[in-house]
Design brief:
By secondary structure, the chain is mainly beta. The protein contains 20 helices and 71 strands. A hairpin with a 5-residue loop joins strand 6 and strand 7. Helix 19 packs antiparallel against helix 20. InterPro entries: YhdP, YhdP_central.
Length: about 1250
């Protein structure tokens, strides 16, 4: 024992020495480790069972132990995959390993590790678990931890795609029975990147398997498509599946037994039949559990939006049960899908219909056909995927809607409950304000206001049975209560039984409720059009039998509907008018219908004792008999609504009856659309007949006619036409191509009493004319109508006092022939009056009768052809235009303009027209429309002019030549100008156009005026003249003015200029001589008075006149009318005075350089203070006033022969400054003429015709101061 410490110390020292030697050896050997690389790799291959390669090994010894670095490690896997590492760094802590008796590494890092396996990642039994192979033993047990950097793992996903798992960083910790990992992984595949995930794992190693534990994943915007199973990829055209999620997965005994998923945000899209569907989530949580042998998936709160529509808040659970026995004669086995849901909106599930179609094609077909919508409150479905006909269900819903599917009608606003299975079930349902389409059964959707029903069914190997009980439906216009049963035995005929009570407040809606598949299309067609109104409270429907044998011609079944219809509207034939206000009993028995009523309205007439029978629908014939009475106006419109419209109806449209008629009617109406046969007889008493083609009415029509369809034949009828007696008969015939009407007429009429001519014409006519006529009308069956009329008579007993050429004495024969040929669009009216007068015309028929073109030839032996263009051409004998205007002024043409429309192109030719007290010879007047109005051209011996009557612009009269010299019966006794307008009434400017008159050469009363222009504008009661001009070539007068034609405030104003080079030439042009010779003249005037322009009123005359005459001579004062102008200021009297006093000086004439004067007029009194005659012998200055009303004057005149002294000039200036200046100037020229007289002053007063001139001053000449 004493030596034990020594032994231990020696042993320890030996171990230390050995360890030191070992460490020293390793320090020396490790740097040369790459030399033993082949042997080392062989050892690794024998340990792992896989061949391993490495390009380089390097090692060294550190204080804690050896470090190793290997490059380009590569190994091949048994499934054809590979394993490679670009670089591995290893640092072994020897001391910690000895302490823990397990390899402890300070560093174990794999750089660019590449692991590729061809074994798919699947879930299942232990064979598919993560078995601890040689590699897994190395990584899971031999290493206490390791790190992966920039590594990659390639594997096959459950969908079959190859995925690349990029691992930027991963740390793995191993305990003896626990393995943990944390890091980042990034998944990518052939379709691109699928997102980066954070991964945490905590797994336990039991029996060599990582078979228990949990895995946590967290990812933002990750693509989940690769992780979905292959079935999903094969059956759903998934386009995207991007989600941000967190997930927990529980592994038990190597299998995934459950998990939780939190889908924060994201969505998926997949391709449907016609569109791409989308699904998005918002913090959706789901729990997945495996309940052997199936799976269950539950969502506690459906926070889902599909195709942009959020789902209502609810729960959804799906379960899949593996194949099991689902019953049936073959003990069929099928997988089963179980669905439990609450608060689901069916329309929001449309997007998952493709999935349902893949799970069960039959279910997908039903879903696609019905397109259900509405809210399912609770739903439980157990669907055997390979035996959908064994589906079990239990549900409650509200406001459900779907489209028709086979014999299941469509519906909306459908609420109720459902329980049972496809083979045996019960349905309780209610509907409010809903439509139920049921094609092949009902022609239109049933409009349900309120309905309750209980329906059960049984479908098994014995057949199908459908029962309806407690059916109470209030639909459109109908309330029905009853029940039905439909049986379809497996190997027998079907049978349907119906018993129902029906009431309706609108029989016209009955067609909604005829089951076409049971009653037949023809019957439903007929009844749908026949019953158009009515009420019934106790109608009964009884049906029993095989619906395929309807209508039970051999009593195999029974169908009867008894309908006591009140206030009905019934159409026995679709093309005939319906019967109204009808109380009728309809008894439908199998394929026949018997109807009867005491009375009914046929349009506007009354039918009594009416019977209507359809003995056999197959014979398709309806027989009606009735007595008819009513107004004739209603007969035609009634037949216009029948198949007889083109025959009898067309006749009554052209020959329209009025007044009460009596008839007996028998109708034979085929129901197959063939022509109806109508027979009867009509009696007329004091009726009226409107002949439409002639637009005329026969009154007091009495007689009788019969008809068979459209063939009418009348007895002789009497009537009154245009207030004259008439005999008439008619017949009609249905021809091969047209319906023909023939009417014969005759009478002896007084034209003045027909009531169709204007009163003015009637006053000019007397006598009577015997005539006869024929009317023929052809009415083609498809369109149009043609007719012809011929009238013949002799006007021998007629006397006419109308203007020529229509004047005629009684007893003078005048044969008249009128013909009309036309259709519904136009007719040609031709005729002859006597031997020389022919007329031809074409008329158009429209909304208004329109004369297209016409010609009258007054001296023609044949019918003249129509003009080539639309218009009227009148070739008349000499005419008295005044007489025709007088006739028109009496209203002879007023009714003509309102009844018809006439062309605007009119030509009138006559050798002589007497108008305006003048004869216009060889006159041709043409009126034609233009783009902006109407153009009238007048050419004759006395006129050549055009008048453009423009729309929205002044009328323009261009007169090249006008000679107007009216003959006057007697000369007026006064000098007052005559008015160009009638004086009987006030002139009204209303309707007057603005006008522009341009006359190149105008002659009036034999005098040539030359050029005359004027622009006339009308504004209310005001006529304005602008640009007025009269240019004779010797003088030029311009004028602008205004005539206010306001009653009580009439006013005329004129202003302008009168200019010329020689006043005597200008006057002599009009045949007037003037004492002023060789003088130019310039007159400005501005005058106004309160009367018409042609009636100047001196008392209201106001204005101003500026006159200036050039150098000239005043000769004989009393010459012509011009002397009267000088007399106005008593110039003539003054000149005679001067000639008497100074006859040697003045001689026979008075020469002057100029005459200037300004005169203003105030209320008929003319004033002047600057009239100055600048004469060579003397200057004359005048001032004063002339009263034009009293025709007297008060003037002063100053005559200055010569001025040689300052006093004389001052005296002249005292008269007027202007006169003074003139006198001063004249004194320089005329000073030598008079040596003794300086200034003469005169006072002129008295009447204009005999003025008194008094000399008030004679100032002698004074000698100049020395």
């Amino acid at each position: 024992m004493r030596r034990l410490p020594g032994i231990l110390l020696l042993t320890g020292a030996a171990l230390v020495v050995i360890a030191a030697l070992l460490v020293s050896g390793l320090r020396i050997a490790l740097p040369h480790l790459d030399a033993w690389r082949p042997e080392i790799l062989n050892k690794i291959e024998s340990a792992t069972g896989m061949p391993v390669e490495a390009s380089q090994l390097s090692a060294s010894w550190q204080n804690f132990g050896p470090t190793l670095e290997a490059h380009d490690i590569r190994a091949e896997l048994k499934d054809g995959g590979e394993f490679s590492v670009k670089r591995v760094t290893l640092a072994l802590d020897v001391w910690q390993s000895l302490l823990h008796m397990r390899w402890q590494f300070r560093d174990l890092t794999f750089w660019q590790l590449r692991f590729r396996t061809n074994t798919p990642i699947t879930s299942g039994g232990s064979d598919d678990s993560l078995e601890a192979s040689h590699i897994s033993d190395l990584f899971l047990r031999q290493f206490d931890h390791f790190d992966l950097r920039d590594s990659e793992v390639s594997f096959l996903t459950p969908s079959g795609q190859r995925a690349e798992l990029a691992i930027p960083q991963l740390t793995w910790l191993n305990d003896p029975r626990r393995h943990r990992a944390e890091g980042l992984v990034s998944l990518s595949s052939l379709t691109g990147q699928h997102g980066v995930m954070q991964v945490r794992m905590d797994l336990r190693d039991d029996e060599g398997l990582l078979s228990n534990g949990r895995v946590w994943l967290q990812a933002d915007d990750i693509d989940l498509k690769p992780w979905l199973g292959k079935w999903m990829q094969d059956n759903i055209a998934l386009e995207t599946a991007q989600f941000s999620l967190e997930g927990w997965m529980t592994i038990d005994k190597g299998d995934v037994t459950g998990g939780d998923v939190w889908l924060k945000q994201g969505g998926a899209s997949w391709l449907g039949e016609k569109q791409t569907h989308t699904l998005s989530v918002d913090n959706l949580t789901a729990h997945i559990t495996r309940e052997n042998p199936g799976w269950q998936f539950s969502i506690p709160d459906t926070r889902i939006t599909m195709d942009g529509k959020p789902w209502p808040s609810g729960a959804l659970t799906l379960a899949w049960i593996p194949e099991q026995d689902v019953g049936g004669k073959d003990n069929k086995r099928s997988d089963e899908l179980r669905i439990r849901a609450s608060n689901l909106e069916l329309a929001g599930l449309e997007g998952i219909r493709p999935l349902a179609a893949k799970l069960s094609p039959a279910l997908g077909d039903v879903w696609r056909s019905t397109q259900p919508s509405g809210k399912i409150n609770t739903l439980a479905l157990d669907i055997p995927l390979q035996a959908a006909d064994k589906t079990r269900f239990q549900a409650s819903w509200s406001d459900l809607a779907w489209k028709q599917w086979k014999l299941l009608p469509g519906a909306e606003h459908f609420s109720g409950t459902l329980s049972g299975s496809v083979e045996n079930g019960l349905l309780t349902a209610s509907m409010k304000q809903a439509k139920m389409p049921y094609e092949t059964v009902f022609r239109a959707p049933l409009e349900i206001a309120d309905g309750q029903a209980t329906i059960s069914w049984l479908n098994n190997d014995k057949g199908f049975q459908l029962d309806g009980r407690n059916i109470d439906v209030k639909a459109k216009a109908v309330h029905a209560r009853g029940g039905f049963r439909y049986l379809q035995p497996a190997n027998d005929e079907p049978w349907l039984g119906i018993l129902a009570g029906i009431s309706t407040d609108d029989g016209s809606q009955a067609w909604h409720y005829f089951p076409e598949n049971l009653m037949g299309k023809d019957l439903v067609d007929y009844l749908s059009g026949a019953i158009q109104g009515g009420e019934a409270d106790n109608a009964t429907l009884v049906y029993g039998g095989n619906p395929q044998l309807f209508p039970y011609k051999h009593n195999e079944g029974q169908f009867e509907v008894l309908v006591p219809l009140r206030n009905a509207k019934f159409a026995f034939q679709p093309d005939w008018p319906a019967l109204t206000n009808l109380d009728i009993e309809l008894d439908f028995i199998n394929d026949g219908l018997w109807m009867k009523t005491d009375g009914v309205n046929l349009g506007g007439v009354r039918a009594s004792n009416l019977t209507a029978v359809i003995p056999d629908y197959s014979k398709e014939k309806l027989l009606i008999d009735a007595d008819i009475k009513g107004p004739g106006k209603a007969v035609g419109p009634y037949f216009d609504e029948t198949p007889l419209k083109d025959s009898l109806g067309a006749t009554l449209q052209e020959l329209q009856l009025d007044g009460d008629v009596n008839a007996r009617l028998h109708l034979d109406i085929p129901l197959n659309g063939e022509l109806v046969t109508a027979k009867g007889e009509v009696t007329l008493r004091n009726n009226s007949l409107f002949i439409k083609p002639l637009d005329s009415t026969l009154k007091n029509l009495s007689g009788k006619f019969s008809f068979i369809n459209g063939d009418l034949q009348s007895e002789p009828l009497t009537a009154s036409w245009f207030n004259q007696p008439l005999n008439v008969d008619f017949s009609t015939k249905e021809g091969a191509k047209a319906y023909q009407v023939a009417v014969n007429l005759n009478g002896n009429w007084q034209p003045a009493k027909t009531g169709v001519l204007p009163e003015a014409v009637n006053e000019a006519l007397s006598g009577s004319v015997a005539w006869d006529g024929k009317v023929g009308i052809d009415l083609p069956y498809h369109a149009g109508a043609t007719y012809n009329v011929e009238l013949n008579g002799d006007l021998n007993n007629v006397s006419s006092h109308l203007p020529s050429p229509l004047a005629k004495p009684a007893g003078e024969p005048l044969a008249v022939n009128v013909k009309v040929d036309g259709n519904l669009n136009s007719f040609e009216l031709t005729g002859q009056a006597g031997a020389d007068n022919h007329f031809n015309s074409r008329w158009l028929l429209g909304q208004k009768l329109t004369l297209d073109r016409a010609i009258w030839a007054a001296d023609s032996k044949t019918l003249p052809p129509l003009p080539e263009q639309s218009g009227v051409e009148l070739n008349m004998p000499p005419m008295n235009g005044a007489e025709w205007l007088a006739l028109f002024q009496k209203g002879a043409a007023e009714s003509v303009g309102g009844a018809a429309s006439f062309p605007q192109y009119i030509t009138l030719r006559t050798p002589m027209l007497s108008l305006g007290n003048q004869q216009w010879n060889n006159l041709s007047i043409v009126s034609q429309p233009t783009a902006n109005g109407t153009l009238v051209e007048a050419q004759g011996r006395e006129i050549n002019a055009t008048l453009a009557m423009r729309n929205n612009a002044p009328w323009l009269a261009n007169i090249k030549y006008l000679y107007y010299n009216p003959s006057v019966a007697k000369t007026r006794g006064d000098s007052t100008p005559s008015s160009p307008f009638p004086t009987t009434e006030r002139i009204n400017f209303r309707g007057w156009p603005d006008a522009q008159i341009r006359c190149t050469e105008c002659w009036f009363w034999g005098q040539k005026f030359g050029r005359i222009d004027s622009d006339i504008t009308i504004s209310g009661d005001t006529l304005t003249l602008t640009n007025g001009l009269i240019d004779t070539g010797f003088s030029r007068l311009t004028a602008d003015g205004e005539w206010v034609n306001n009653p009580g405030n009439e006013r005329t104003s004129l202003k302008g200029k009168l200019r010329g080079q020689k006043i005597d030439a200008a006057a002599e042009f009009f045949g007037v001589t003037t004492p002023i010779r060789q003088s130019s003249f310039n007159v400005d005037y501005d005058l106004h008075w309160r009367k018409a322009p042609w009636q100047p009123d001196e008392a209201t005359l106001n204005g101003i006149i500026h006159t200036q005459l050039g150098k000239g001579e005043i000769t004989e004062i009393n010459t012509g009318h011009a002397g009267q102008l000088l007399r106005l200021l008593s110039v003539d009297a003054l000149m005679r005075k001067l000639r008497f006093d100074f006859r040697d000086t003045f001689g026979e004439g008075f020469y002057f350089d100029s005459i200037r004067s300004t005169a203003w007029i105030k209320d008929g009194v003319m004033h002047t203070d600057d009239t100055l005659v600048d004469g060579l012998e003397a200057d004359i200055a005048m001032k004063g006033s002339v009263n034009l009303v009293r025709r007297d004057l008060n003037m002063e005149a100053v005559v200055a022969p010569e001025i040689s002294a300052t006093v004389g000039v001052a005296a002249a200036f005292a008269v007027n400054p202007i006169v003074g200046a003139a006198v001063f100037a004249a004194s320089k020229v005329l000073g030598p003429l008079w040596s003794k007289v300086s200034i003469l002053r005169y006072h002129i007063s008295g009447p204009l015709d005999d003025p008194q001139i008094n000399e008030v001053l004679r100032q002698p000449r004074k000698e100049k101061a020395q």
